[in-house]
Amino acid sequence: MANTSERTFWDYLADVSENHSPIDFVLIADHLDKFLYGTLVTLEITVLSLLIGGVLAIPLAIARAQRQRGLNGAILSFTYFFRGTPLLVQTYLFYYGLAQFEFIRESFLWAPILSKAWWCALIAFTLNTAAYTTEFLRGAIENTPRGEIEAARACGMSRLTLLWRIILPSAFRRALPAYSNEVIFMLHSSVVLSTITIQDILGVGRWLNGRYYLAYEGFITAMIFYMILVFIISRGFRWWENRWLAHLRPRPLLSTQ
Amino acid sequence: MESIWEYRYLLLDGTIVTVQLAVGSLILSVVLGLAGASAKLARNPISNRFASAYTTLVRGVPDLVLMMLLFYGGQQIVNDLGTVTGWWDYLEINQFIAGIGSIGFVFGAYMTETFRGAILAIPRGQIEAGISCGMTNLTIFLRITWPQMVRHALPSFTNNWLVLIKATALVSVIGLHDVVWNASTAGRSVREPFTFMFAVLLIYLALTAISDIGLRWLDRRYSAGVRSA
Predict the structure, then answer these.
(1) Cβ separation of B180 and A84 shorter than 8 Å?
(2) Shortest CA distance to A62 belongs to which of A133, A127, A145?
(3) Which of A222, B13, B197, B206 could form a disulfide linkage to A93, CB 3.0–4.6 angstroms apart?
(4) CB-CB neighbors (< 8 A) of A205 in chain B
(5) Rounded Cα distance, A152 and B15, in Å
(6) Which of A189, A195, A215 sits opposite B72 (nearest CB)?
(7) What confidence score (pLDDT) does residue A251 get?
């Protein structure tokens, strides 16, 4: 029997796992590398879809805000459709649904892209986040103070300069709080990946539980990983908001001395 | 199209399960939201701490993870408790209960914020006036707080409900026979997955549109007597 002071942390962990706790910490520690890899998979698709979706959303939001005839209705139906339906079903539509059509199965895109779970998820996620981002960016653009636009016109700015110098910078600032919600929302939605055979964080958790016939370990570890990611993201956005929205912060009271 | 017609009863059954699940989770989330909001507003540091831990946890964890934890882990806990206490042999948590429990739990946190904001929007003077008229706490809640809280909470409540309906799709992952599950089974058996998934999307859009009408009616009712700009 080893003296307690000589026991290493690992011995302690093994002892707790075996005798005192319903959760097997050693097993989790042994598979931590898999969870880290799952984190990369989750982050990869989340970040890529947010980037592509965000870039797509900018022209769509501008067209919506300026009420471009023809385009406006089409974009509205796109955003209504993608915002009104579950991401899970949208992903299923691409991953399971596309195989129904022969011309898709025979197209050159089928083997490298459209038959792959990763690409289908990326397409569905991108369209989904583009729809949400378009709508709140449109709101931010429409809320541009009228005076700013008039001032810019009075200075003789062209429409493009006006958009680039005045409308978009201030709209991005106003949309930032909503965007932080969208990013966290996308991270949460990315669990859909695990339902189409991709090993993201939850996918690894499900695999672990299935392999060792467990009830808690995989899910609790996944939960902690997601919490850490959300914590980092919200911290990052708070920092960003402090930088970009510094002029909107309430001013410190002048001391009355 | 013919295959959809052929399987219409399966889709209808699934839709009914989805609606039941959504309404059940909504009721649970409203109860939890009211409890959470009163815990956050109470002058009691312990209840404040618990309520913020609750909302932070839910904001940090995806709903599907909580759902699976409740469905698989909760089953284990219930059985272990039964073995230890000897009160029951084997109780099964079915997918429906796990779905309502986890979706209700998640949206309870969002409802907490909704109701908290709505209660804070009621002028303090009205409650003081109620106290000075000799109203009991319950009367104040029923006559002053509730009717105005509903009006202030409605826009955010509407938003939560629309997100909640979509969240119910996730229960198909733990095997509840909701509209998504039924449609994907049918779609696979007739080899028309796209048609069936598209039908599910349309069903969700219809549910959203119907609830929009209902919530607008509610908004008119509770905003009676308020001038709109």
Answers:
(1) no
(2) A133
(3) B197
(4) 65, 68
(5) 53
(6) A215
(7) 67
Q: Please report residues of B whose CB lies closer than 8 A to that of A42.
A: none
Beta carbons within 8 Å of B52's beta carbon, 6+ residues apart: B40
Question: Which CATH number does the domain A30-238 belong to among 1.10.3720.10, 1.10.630.10, 3.90.1110.10, 1.10.20.10?
Answer: 1.10.3720.10
Return the pLDDT at A256. Answer: 56
CB-based contact A138:A78 (threshold 8 Å): no
Cα–Cα distance between B24 and B35 in angstroms, integer? 17
The answer to whether the CB atoms of A85 and B184 lie below 8 A apart is no
Q: Which domain holds residue B95?
A: 19-177
Place of tokens 């195989």: A99
The partner residue sitting opposite A97, judged by closest CB among B173, B197, B205, is B197
Residue type, A235: R
Domain assignment of residue B105, yes or no: yes
Q: Is residue B146 part of a domain?
A: yes
pLDDT of residue B23: 95
Please report, for chain A, the start and end positions of each structural domain, with discontinuous segments joined by +.
30-238
Which ipTM was obtained for this model? 0.87
Opening angle at CA A229, ends A224 and A232, nearest 5? 125
Q: Which of residues 187-226 of A touch B (CB under 8 A)?
A: 187-192, 194-195, 202, 205-206, 209, 215-216, 219-220, 222-223, 226
Residues of B in contact with A89 (CB under 8 A): 169, 180, 197, 200-201, 204
pTM over cut 0.90 = no
| pLDDT of A1 over the 50 cut | no
What is the predicted pLDDT for the residue at A6? 67
Q: Please answer yes or no on whether B201 and A205 come within 8 Å at the CB atom.
A: no
Q: How far is B100 from A186, CA to CA, in rounded Å? A: 22
Q: B164: number of CA atoms within 13 Å, CB side?
A: 32
Does residue B198 belong to the interface with chain A, where contact is any CB pair within 8 Å?
yes
Chunked mean pLDDT (size 10), chain B, 229 residues: 84 94 96 93 90 90 90 83 78 86 93 91 90 92 88 89 93 91 90 91 93 88 73
**Structure tokens, A70:** 């023809």
Whether residue B2 lies inside any domain: the answer is no
Name the CA dihedral angle for A83, A86, A89, A93, rounded to a multiple of 10 degrees: 10
Contact B108, B33 (CB under 8 A): yes
Within a domain: B46:
yes
Distance from the Cα of A101 to chain B's closest Cα (Å) equals 9
